[in-house]
Amino acid sequence: MSPYRVVNADEFSQLIERMRISVPSSIRESERTLAERDAIIAEAQNEAKNIIAQAHGRAQELLSENALVQAAHREADRIIANSRNEAMRHAQEADRYATEVLEELAKKLDIITQQVDNGIRMLQERAGTRADAESEAPRKEKG
């Protein structure tokens, strides 16, 4: 077999004309498809950038919120510590005051106890003096 073939020139000419007409439209369609693809890619990239920017913004918000929460916890801890210290100070002052009042009361009770003891002793002495006087009175009458 020979590498040469006989071709009908009219048919070949029509085939080339059809190719010449269809190739540019295929190229235009390919170019349009590529342009659409590029537009879709550009839109997807813009959307990805927006999503990333939103994610960064939300991350910053969360960090800020977290920082606020941490600051609030620190403030709450400080307030609790101050309150405990203040309560302890008040309790110590109350204990000191109660001790002073009780010591004053103990002194007054000592004074009252001494007065009561003195009163009892005086009454006992008076009763003893009367008893002596009463026991002497019958002797005088007998005498």
Alpha carbon gap, first and last residue: 193 Å
Can you count the helices? Answer: 1
Q: What is the ordering of alpha helices and beta strands?
A: H
Low-confidence sequence ranges: none
Oligomeric state of this protein: single chain
Q: What spatial form do the alpha-carbon principal axes imply?
A: rod-shaped
Arithmetic mean pLDDT: 86
- Gyration radius from CA atoms, angstroms: 59 Å
DSSP strand count: 0
User: Which secondary-structure class do the elements indicate?
Assistant: mainly alpha
Helix content: over 70%
Largest sheet: none
The fraction of residues in strands falls at under 5%
Q: What would you note in describing this structure?
A:
The chain is an all-alpha fold. The chain contains 1 helix and no strands. It has one helix at 9-142. The longest helix has 134 residues, at 9-142. The mean pLDDT is 86.
In short:
With 143 residues, this protein is mainly alpha-helical.
Question: Can you lay out the helices and strands and say which pair or pack?
Answer:
Layout: H1 9-142
